Amino acid sequence: xxxxxxxxxxxDGIDFLEDLTGQHVSVPVLLLxxxxxxxxxxxxxxxxxxxxxxxxxxxxVLITAVQMVTAGGTFFSPRFxxxxxxxxxxxESFEKKLSAREQEILQLLGTGFTDIEVAATLGISxxxxxxxxxxxxxxxxxxxxxxxxxxxLKAGFTTTDRLR
Length: 164
What we know:
single chain, alpha/beta, Rossmann fold, Arc Repressor Mutant, subunit A, 2 domains, two-stranded antiparallel ribbon, 9 helices, 6 strands, 56% helix, globular
């Protein structure tokens, strides 16, 4: 069993899992996080993890989760399940408005990347990155770079310790 925090000092737990999966490592995974923002719920839901426990849950919840996952089952804490259910019902959710690529770009822009840095990171042209930025801002009804960064923080695309 791999107990893994989503927020790592030098990266992201879900990205780490994708790297492991690419190396054909197969081990049950239980994610831990102190955050249950929309983007976290969305990414965890799309990953192939066996469980998620919010760090504010009672310690008994973690024990139950470990027991269920090691027995071959799955476990998602009540806080996660409630947030996921609410997201599915939200018409204005970023998940319904933005493509996977736009979500990836919003995560970078939210941390303070420029269009040129986004382009270099993703291997796209600066004008394509700029077009994605405009589309994201239009779809989310954001008007300034500050609005975009505030949205990214609130929705869990980034955290204050990752801001540039």
